[in-house]
Design brief:
2 strands, Transcriptional regulator PadR family protein, Tscrpt_reg_PadR_N, WH-like_DNA-bd_sf, mainly alpha, Arc Repressor Mutant, subunit A, two-stranded antiparallel ribbon, WH_DNA-bd_sf, 4 helices, 91 residues
Amino acid sequence: MDQLTGFQRDLLYVITGMDRPSGQDILDDINDYVEQPVTHGRLYPNLDALVEEDLVEKGQLDRRTNYYALTPKGKRELEHRQEWVERYVEH
């Protein structure tokens, strides 16, 4: 988890907060948060990197649309990260 970029960690949070979102769903959500719009060219390589790290599962909703979901490893890593963050940030 510590090897991920901040953007990749943000993607994990977005994915965990949604039910099997498509890439477009993720893009729409992240663009509501960031000042500089995220492009498809930035999003999909980062999603693929998360899939390669076995943090995110990629599947098909239909012939044209993929979904993304955290793997068990991704959930554990995100929970561990959140516990670490909470040690330093008050609620």
